[in-house]
Amino acid sequence: MKAGGLLRIFCVLGFIFLYAPILSLIIFSFNESKLVTVWGGFSTKWYGELFRDPQILGSAWISFQVAFVTATLAVILGTLAAYVLVRFGRFRGRALLTGMSTAPLVMPEVITGLSLLLLFVSMEQLIGWPAGRGKTTIIIAHVTFCMAYVAVVVQSRLAGLDRDLEEAAMDLGARPVRVFFDITIPVIAPALVAGWLLAFTLSLDDLVVASFVTGPGASTLPMVIFSKVRLGVSPDINALATIIIVVVAIAVGLATWYMRRSARNG
Length: 266
Description:
There is one protein chain. The chain is an all-alpha fold. 78% of the residues lie in helices and 0% in strands. The two termini are 44 Å apart. The mean pLDDT is 86.
């Protein structure tokens, strides 16, 4: 057999290994039986059970709120950090800023969560804020590591940006702030969208850091799912996972369509 045929076989086997569990999860979310490994007929009752579970719905709402705010703040802060690193050349503190913006990429989540927990406890004792731990502390913790991913994505796009457009706009009398919002931001918009989606996904998916910095009144969706599956996987968890997969697939498809259209127009 030729090398090309072997490569195709290995690619197919690899995709089957990755996506077969996801496909089986989607199929068994429509299972009539309460046993997740025994097919008892087609049914959508577990979706109804899911939407009648206040714990799941409450944690999902908290997770989406946290992820949306985290992604927005991470894009703002990450874009500013990337712009400074790319456009400001050498300056005092550049090495420190570079290290601080990339350290969360390689820092173990356990260390990040523990250090942020100690920080929040110390701040509460010293200045009284944050009072307890909840959505605010989760957002701060998630922004801390999500902005690092956004900075890397935006920095690579800014490094390859043709500065002639910005210089031409300034030659015509535009101020730097006007050039940034009218020229730079539209050109790097695909990177901003990609960074926002990446930060949203990382925040929505996080379990370790959120477990350290949250309190009893703000359990995120991964925390609730983890607590449930420790007692055994139930069909309503399959239904929840199916909904998340569909939403993520739609979001990725829309983002891909937008970036391809921007590339054609550009």
